[in-house]
Amino acid sequence: MHLRPQVRSAYMKNDFEWDNLKKLSFKMVDEANIKLMRDYVLETSHIEDDE
């Protein structure tokens, strides 16, 4: 099923949830940054156990 260009354009301008996409994108970037920072700390810190 193919939508006409006018329908796609109207959907994009009026109905598409741009705010939700923006929020989700920011959330995903924040989560990825936290993971990168945690991985970096784990790789660069040399904490020895007292065992």
Rg value: 22 Å
Shape type: rod-shaped
What distance lies between the first and last C-alpha atoms, to the nearest angstrom? 65 Å
Number of helices: 2
What string gives the helices and strands in order? HH
Structural class: mainly alpha
- Percent helix among the residues? over 70%
Query: Beta-strand percentage?
Result: under 5%
According to DSSP, the number of beta strands is 0
Average pLDDT figure:
86
Poorly predicted segments: none
Largest sheet: none
Walk me through this protein's architecture.
This protein has 51 residues and is mostly helical. It has a domain at 17-46. It contains two helices and no strands. The chain is rod-shaped, with a radius of gyration of 22 Å. The mean pLDDT is 86. One of its GO terms (biological process) is photosynthesis. One of its GO terms (molecular function) is protein folding chaperone. Keywords: Carbon dioxide fixation, Chaperone, Photosynthesis.
Topology at a glance:
Layout: H1 5-15, H2 18-44
Task: Give a brief description.
The chain is mainly α. It has a domain at 17-46. Helix content is 75%, strand content 0%.
Key traits:
single chain, 51 residues, mainly alpha, 75% helix, 0% strand
